[in-house]
């Protein structure tokens, strides 16, 4: 009954989230993807079996994904959130309709800063936590989508807010070879900050964040800049600052005056950031799971 209610909610969400606006995507250098108007896909509720447990998510797939290599974007809600709420907030399927976009649903998880009893949904916080149930979930979904559609292995991305941003950093640490770029928001994975492989990253932070303090996020950003040997800052677009990385893996930041909130303008900037970053051909050839 719970699953049926969840599926009905997702069907209602489809009507709310999917608009008829036509979007145009700039080409990515070296991509076989044709530039053409594409309407946002219709989201479908999906269920996967992971270690005997049912895991759920919403998947938006462009009509061309069977014939044209498509980017793949994973989006992770914050603690106490849901896949449905993430679809409304991130809107990646609207901002990048040529991409396969996945909004996954977390399970009840004790929070680090709130909900110590674990009554709300969330994501594992470190490798080995919760028997790696969410890393395994990601692996199953990635394998499933690769088997069903023409996923472009040069263009796989992850973004998330708060606890979902922390899980984005964990994926960077534990599944780094899969991704072309990452975009965590409202999070600070300080234990991982000095060991992450160089990769383009857009970190989004609020100066008045009362939960994940801005000072913590500043430390995270500074450590990323040091590890990726970044140079002097320069403006990018939409209020985003770029710190060019020595190996081409730059650190981008969007800092607002907001609190612990995913900025309304973030989806468009994240989509544009992802569009501009793809892995080299050689890296795609050696992607795990192929």
Please tell me about this protein's structure.
This protein has one domain: Alpha/Beta hydrolase fold, catalytic domain (Rossmann fold, 3-Layer(aba) Sandwich), CATH 3.40.50. With 290 residues, the protein is an alpha/beta fold. It is 29% helix and 22% strand.
Concise description?
This protein is of the alpha/beta class and 290 residues long. The protein has 8 helices and 12 strands.
Which labels suit this protein?
single chain; 290 residues; alpha/beta; Rossmann fold; ten-stranded mixed β-sheet; two-stranded antiparallel sheet; 8 helices; 12 strands; 22% strand; globular; disordered N terminus
CATH architecture: 3-Layer(aba) Sandwich
Mean pLDDT: 88
Report the CATH superfamily: Alpha/Beta hydrolase fold, catalytic domain
Order of adjacent strands in the largest pleated sheet: 1-2-4-3-7-8-9-12-11-10
Helix share, percent? 25-40%
Strand content: 15-25%
Here the CATH topology equals Rossmann fold
| SSE sequence, one letter per element | HEEEHHEEEHEHEEHEEEHH
| Number of helical stretches of at least 4 residues | 8
Principal-axis shape: globular
How would you sum up the major sheet?
10 strands, mixed
Instruction: Flag low-confidence runs.
Output: 1-35
Total domain modules: 1
Class by alpha and beta content = alpha/beta
Question: How many beta strands in the DSSP annotation?
Answer: 12
Cα-based radius of gyration, to the nearest Å:
18 Å
Gap between N and C termini: 36 Å
CATH class: Alpha Beta
